Amino acid sequence: MIGVLQGFALILGIIGAGYLTAVFGVVKGEQRRVLNNVAFYVATPALLFSVLHTSDPSVLVSPVILVTSASALLVAAVFVLASRLWFRRDLASTTLGATCAGYVNSNNLGLPVAVYILGDAAYVAPLLLVQLVIFAPGILAILETTRAPGRSADAPAPRGGAARGGLVALGRAASNPVILASVAGFLVALVQLPIPEIVMAPIDMLGNAAIPMVLLSFGISLRGQRALAPGSGRAAVFTASGIKVLLMPAIAWTIGTVAGLNAHEVFVATTIAALPTAQNVYNYAATYRRAETMVRDTVFLTTFASLPVIAAIAWLLGE
After folding, report:
1. Domains of the chain, first to last
2. So where does this one cross the membrane (predicted)?
C-alpha cells in the first residue's frame, strides 16, 4: 500500500507545483495552454510511440484486459444514458464525460498499484495498450467532429460544425499526432522493427516530459476556480466519478466472475477498474477546449476517491 500512496503523492505533488506556479504568477491565465499544446502535439505522441513500439500486441486478448475493456465500454454507455436522461450535454461534453467514466490512469497510478498490490507491473501494460491503440483514437476522432473546417483545436466550434465537417474531421483524426504515434508504435511492435538508440533517445526524452506537463497544467487550472463550484456541471462530475470508482469495478468483478476467471484474475480486473480517471482526458479537454471544468473536477475527485476503494478491494479480494 505504501507504493500506491507514493503514486498518489507523486501526482498530487506535481499538481500542487502547478497550482503554486499560478499563485506566484509564473504562468498566468491562458498561458497554461502552451503546456497543454506542447504535451498534446509533441510530448504525448513521443511517449505513446516510446511505450508502444516495444509492446506485445498479443496481450490485447488476455482475459483480464477483455474484462476491463468491456467494463469501460459499459460504464461509458451508462454515462451517455445518464447524460441523455438527466443533464443533457453536447457531443463533446458527453464524449469526455463517458471517457472520464471508463478511461483509467494506467500509468502514474496503474504502475504502483500493479507492483505493490497486484504483484506484477505487466498487468497494466495491456490496458495501456488498449487505451492508446483503440480507445484514444476513437475519442479524438469524435472530438474532431466538433470542430468546424478551418478552425484550430483551441477555437470553439460553431453550431452545426459536426454535421458539416464530418469528412474534414475524419481527415484530421487520421493526421492527429496522438493517433499517428499510437498506430506507428503498434505497427513497429507488430512487425518487430528495431529502432536505433540514436533515434529513440530524443523520443524517450520528449515522452518523459508529457505527464509532468499535463499535471502542471492541471494544477495551474485550479487557480482562481474552486473545484465543484455551483453551476460548474456538478451533476455530470458526480455521475462520472461515481461510475468510475464504484460502478466500473463492480461491473468488472461481475463480468470476471460470470466469465469463469480465476480468483486472482477477478481481483486484478476489479482493482484495475477502480483506478481513477487518467489525466490524459484533461489534456484532451483542454486541447479541444471542451468541458474542461467537468473533466478537471472529475479527475480531481476520482484521484482521491479511488484510494479507499482500491484498499477495500485489496482487503476483500486480495490473496
Report:
1. 2-23+32-222+231-317 (1.20.1530.20)
2. 6-27, 34-53, 59-82, 94-117, 123-143, 174-193, 205-223, 235-255, 267-286, 298-317
